[in-house]
Amino acid sequence: MEVEIKLRLQDSTSHQKLSNLLSPFHTKTLLQENIFFDGTNSELTSNLAVLRIRFYNMDQNCVLSLKAKPMISGGVSRMEEHEEPFDPVLGRACIAEPWRLLSVGDSKILRRVRDEYDFGASGVVCLGGFRNVRAVHKWRGLKLELDETNYDFGTNYELECESADPEKHKELLEDFLKENGVQYSYSNVSKFAIFRSRKLPQ
């Protein structure tokens, strides 16, 4: 189970202010491209599951992931998550020809979606995706991820923090944001849900 604090930043000004505040704690910046897949009959999304291929820093490396059973409330997201390395060249080929996912035999994730969700029984479709610039920071023992997510209909800004004690760490983060005048609200939908709705949160 992945548990994350998710705080949506009001706008680019809030994002830049927080970026400046966290700059002494910056460790790396990741350029992410997220591409999603489903069965022709929505076998995954109809069961609240998401299959994603994520490319890092162009095609430097690639990760296949399955996310399922999402719950998000009060700025805390909980969901089942499984990840495994994926060949970037094969990942690109799957975007052009999604059926290639069905021919990958050594993936536990793809075996699971075929067995559990009947993924691919009637075909596979690429849903498209979005790009994300993620600045990673090490702050007070926490790994903070400051995201600028670029959809073709707008840009969303968010602060994420994976945590084993989300209520304690959420309070710590909120105090920090309030003290420094960074405008924020609780995220109540996932990046994928925003992508599918084609509408930025209000």
What does this structure look like?
The mean pLDDT is 97. This protein has helices at residues 12-22, 88-96, 108-117, 166-179, 191-197; strands at residues 2-9, 26-39, 49-56, 61-73, 76-85, 124-139, 142-151, 154-162, 184-186. The protein is built from 5 helices and 9 strands. The longest helix is centred in the last third of the chain and has 14 residues, at 166-179. With 202 residues, it is α+β, with helices and mostly antiparallel strands. 25% of the residues lie in helices and 45% in strands.
What characteristics describe this protein?
202 residues; alpha+beta; eight-stranded antiparallel β-barrel; 9 strands; 25% helix; 45% strand; elongated
Number of helices: 5
Q: Gap between N and C termini, in Å?
A: 28 Å
Whole-number average pLDDT?
A: 97
Uncertain segments are none
Structural class, from secondary structure content? alpha+beta
In total, the number of strands is 9
Strand content: over 45%
**Major beta sheet, specifics?**
8 strands, antiparallel, barrel
Please give the order of strands in the largest beta sheet.
1-5-4-3-2-6-7-8
Q: Fraction of residues in helices?
A: 25-40%
Oligomer status: single chain
Principal-axes geometry comes out as elongated
Q: Which sequence of SSEs, written as H and E, runs from N to C? A: EHEEEEHHEEEHEH
Protein name: CYTH domain-containing protein
InterPro entries: CYTH-like_dom_sf (IPR033469), CYTH_domain (IPR023577)
Short description:
This protein is α+β, with helices and mostly antiparallel strands and 202 residues long.
Topology:
Layout: E1 2-9, H1 12-22, E2 26-39, E3 49-56, E4 61-73, E5 76-85, H2 88-96, H3 108-117, E6 124-139, E7 142-151, E8 154-162, H4 166-179, E9 184-186, H5 191-197
Antiparallel strand pairs: 1-5, 1-8, 1-9, 2-3, 2-6, 3-4, 4-5, 6-7, 7-8
